[in-house]
Design brief:
Layout (H helix, E strand, L loop, with lengths): L2 H34 L3 H15 L7 H4 L5 H25 L11
């Protein structure tokens, strides 16, 4: 085995890891959409985050900073996760009977 075989193995492993992460995120997105009947803006936010993860254009490029360049990707996924969580919580409060009670006015 030469250096070319090792480099090819590393590149293919990295591509397989990225593909696996992408498929897991798509599966989680589909589950959340159907399970919680997510509104369109939540679906758009998740789709935008997935496109940002796949696109070669980054706020902090991985090519220059290596693994540290993934910080912006993690931030985007985290922000969208919090946004979708709050959408689901708001929808539960509106839809479920006996949702969050409001304090009595004095």
């Amino acid at each position: 085995m030469g250096d070319g075989d090792t480099a090819t193995t590393i590149v293919l492993g990295f591509i397989a890891l990225i593909l696996l992460i992408f498929l897991v995120l798509v599966a989680v997105a589909i589950f959340v959409i159907y399970r919680y009947r997510l509104p369109l803006r939540g679906i758009a936010a998740m789709a935008g985050a997935l496109v940002y993860l796949v696109s070669p254009v980054d706020a902090v490029p991985e090519v220059v900073l290596g693994p540290l360049g993934l910080v912006d990707d993690v931030g985007v996924v985290g922000a969208v996760g919090i946004f979708v969580y709050r959408l689901i919580q708001a929808r539960r409060g509106l839809v479920e009977p006996g949702g969050p009670t409001r304090p009595a006015k004095r």
